[in-house]
User: What shape does this take?
Amino acid sequence: MGDPERYRKQEEVRKWEEHDPIGIFHAYLTGNKKATAKALEEIEARAKADVQKAVEFAEASPEPGLDTLFDHVYVEEV
Amino acid sequence: MARITMREAISQAMWEEMERDPNVFILGEEVGVWGGSYAVTKGFYDHFGGERVRDTPIAEAAIIGAAIGSAMTGLRPIAELMTINFAFAAMDHIVNQAAKLHYMFGGQFVLPLVIRAVGGGGRQLGATHSQTPDAVFAHFPGLKVVSPGTPADAKGLLKAAIRSNDPILFIENATMYQVRGEVPDGDYVLPIGKSTIQRPGMDVTIVTYSKGLEISMKAAEELARDGIEVEIVDLRSLRPLDMVPVIESFKKTNRAVIVEEGWKSFGVGAEVSSRIYEQAFDYVDAPVVRVAQKEVPLPYNRALEQYALPQPADVVAAVREVL
Assistant: This one.
């Protein structure tokens, strides 16, 4: 979470975690034999590794030059 | 007089008005128990209670819609938008309802509604949380758009806004809450729609407001070291737009620079410079120059963000250009 969440109680968060759509979908896939728990774990691990790689790439990249300011505002030159 | 921050001045204005009039109430995201995202309503919930300091869901259209309905039926809501960028999620309510209902019902309803919205860039919040879209809202007749540049103006104008029977968008700059200034104690109320001279000078007229005032004041100090004395006019309100002090100043200096944090195209500078040409054409000694944000969605990267935002050095260069 992006803030200290002092405005709601932990039990409220836990209650809503039970309604988390990712968890529900996870249970649906395994319960209906659409995917194995192992396959889902692999997908999750791959996604985490992709994000980690992206973070490392960003941190290792040089600061963008000021001449890049207008890059990608439009596709075509204006 | 007390020397307080912009945050304290805004907080004081609301506190005093809520003490004065039981119909005034606050609604918005995290304004109650949490005390406001920028701590402006700290202590309000405990003092005034949950009935008058209402935490809402993260649903800007609902916040403004509820505020409009309660204003039409006799209350005086202060709706807080955590950032003005979220006002776009409530755009229909703001421009199609709030700005038009008094007119469309032939004056049968009044909307004593204040929308406090936090705007501005420079804090690395990314393109969608850093905008200064003040001119967008100033485009709509029926809505008033006020944006203070000093703590004293913040207090006096917000108190006036709360007492006004018109819907008012009150725009605060997120980087200015810690700015300190002398603020009159007690019931200090300013008229809405009056520009003011924040710094006297004879050489060039700078027209600005809000964050632009801070930038222009810094530029003025640097220019003064070279013997150039700029006169700074603070608009304080974009709609209504009071051109009288601007034109008076311009007739003296014959040169103007307009400074705003938002984008240049179709912006405050475009409007003000056009009115200068319309109202004081015979006094123009140099083309009016605009200082504004570069025309990009504001980048996250610190160096790029500062490069895209108007800086005191840009104002200094613009003043030298018109001299």
